[in-house]
Amino acid sequence: DMVTALADMEGLVSTELQLVKHLENYIQEEESRLKRLKGFLEEYESIYQEASADPTTYLANPLNAYLLVKRLTSDWKKVKSVISRNVGSDFVKNITQHKNDMRLPTDEDLNGAAVALTRLQDTYQLDTHALAEGKVLGKKNSRQLTADDCWELGRQSYNNGDHYHTVLWMSEALSKLENESNKTVSRQDILGYLAFSTYKQGNVKEALHLTRELLKIVPYHHQALGNIRHYERLLREQETTRKQTAAIDDVTTGERFNATNLKLEKTLKTFGVPNDLWDNYEKLCRGEKLLDPNIEGRLRCRYVTNNVPFFFIQPVKLEEAFLKPLLVIYHDVIFDEEIETVKKLAHPRLKRTTVQNMETGESIPVKYRISKAAFLRDDEHHLVSKVSRRVGYITGLDMTTAEDLQVCNYGIGGHYVPHFDYAKKGEVHGPRDLEWGNRIATWLFYMSDVEAGGATVFPSLGVAIWPRKGSAAFWYNLYPNGEGNENTRHAACPVLTGSKWVSNKWIHERNQELRRPCALNYNSEM
Ligand SMILES: O=C(O)CCC(=O)C(=O)O
Ligand SMILES: [Fe+2]
């Protein structure tokens, strides 16, 4: 599980270097082995020439007779042993032994990386062809993908039952293959996947065409022959229906059965988020403006002192992002030294974010939140407690019932789909909920800039907050009466380029009874 946090992927670069070295050694050894064999060959050849010129005379010499026998027995054994010395499997064994300190990714990691890429493709509407050219958002910052690279993306999608992306990537693989001289994937392999997924996408006519292409290469392809019959029958049935319907219906609607015009259907997984909010989420991630200009016009920036003497000298910069519910951004509230310390403490303990089965206590990795996180206690480092205290000073809330600092690192494509931080009725987010009440507010530190993507967005409000190192977002999750405010639904957009580090304090209801109304008086009506 290495691709869910960028911090953990950095090690893979040195893994690759080690693999390169292993491969170099292996090739060297194979080359010297071949050199020895070539030596034997030359000797055998030259002696043979001498002997074959006149075998009788040659063998009349007792030494020659002896040497011939020797060459065909003992010498030949040597040759055989050099030939069959298994340098290859030694090499593989060596790598397997190194596997633990080398940390090779697994097939699951490959699937995760492929899914991350297709997620980015959807959220940011990235064109498959441009991606295959190595372009992300118009910038060329990677080498081109080969037909094989595209094929693998298609295959991973296929294995996930995602026929939409299978079609996109297999088509790309097919067109790449035409211009490649050094082919590592075959046209028939691509066509097999492409035809079937095209059928699964509802385009029977195209599936039939592709399967026929496949049969041109492999005429007795068992499965393809079966599929062809099935597709042909389906098309005949469709045609009959079309004729019948056309006879009844207005003939001007002739377009409706044009199978080849069928658009590809995304296998949209919205994790139970209503469709319109999911749309907003993706739009906000892409940087589309959704906030009502009237609301935006009323938002202000100001300095906060909260009657904390320290803040009289250096007030905190506050930027309103929404008023009801109150959602604000504070600037320059965590400093580089603190960020570095927090990252350093958290890094070795980062674990894939999971949900806990409340009955068995088992941790289950989830698809809706792809990142790695660790919790830091205040007593672990004076800078951790300092940062927690600062949150208390700025918000005016009591931090003794807050959760430990959660530090989170996202990998490429890492995300957290729209969710609520508070527990719904009957739900418990942690054992402490019962004692400390619900998560009244969320404080989210941004501990890195993110090159592209990775915004925190509120689809019901139309607000996007773009990570800025040193800033923090803060909002109330609950109405003053303790009920959850559904409009605080928020998400972490997939990271497109860069590494995203955040850390957050979840502040609980207990002990805030007297603090909240006077803390920031304008939010009491929230
Ligand atoms: O990373 C983000 O932008 C938001 C994270 C979040 O919502 C959470 O951890 O609950
Ligand atoms: Fe959250």
UniProtKB/TrEMBL annotation:
Predominant location category: endoplasmic reticulum
Entry's EC annotation: 1.14.11.2
Localization per Swiss-Prot or TrEMBL: Endoplasmic reticulum lumen
Known cofactor(s): L-ascorbate
Domain of life the protein comes from: Eukaryota
Record-linked PROSITE patterns: FE2OG_OXY
Domain spans labelled Fe2OG dioxygenase: 401-509
GO molecular function, one term: L-ascorbic acid binding
InterPro entries for this protein: Oxoglu/Fe-dep_dioxygenase_dom (IPR005123), P4H_N (IPR013547), P4HA-like (IPR045054), Pro_4_hyd_alph (IPR006620), Pro_4_hyd_alph_FE2OG_OXY (IPR044862), TPR-like_helical_dom_sf (IPR011990), TPR_P4H (IPR059068)
Pfam families reported for this sequence: 2OG-FeII_Oxy_3, P4Ha_N, TPR_P4H
Gene3D superfamilies assigned to the protein according to its UniProt record, in alphabetical order: 6.10.140.1460, q2cbj1_9rhob like domain (2.60.120.620), Tetratricopeptide repeat domain (1.25.40.10)
Enzyme kind, highest EC tier: oxidoreductase
CC terms in the record's Gene Ontology section: endoplasmic reticulum lumen
Keywords: Dioxygenase, Endoplasmic reticulum, Glycoprotein, Iron, Metal-binding, Oxidoreductase, Signal, Vitamin C
Family: Belongs to the P4HA family.
The protein's role, per its UniProt record: Catalyzes the post-translational formation of 4-hydroxyproline in -Xaa-Pro-Gly- sequences in collagens and other proteins.
Protein name: procollagen-proline 4-dioxygenase
Species per Swiss-Prot/TrEMBL record: Daphnia sinensis
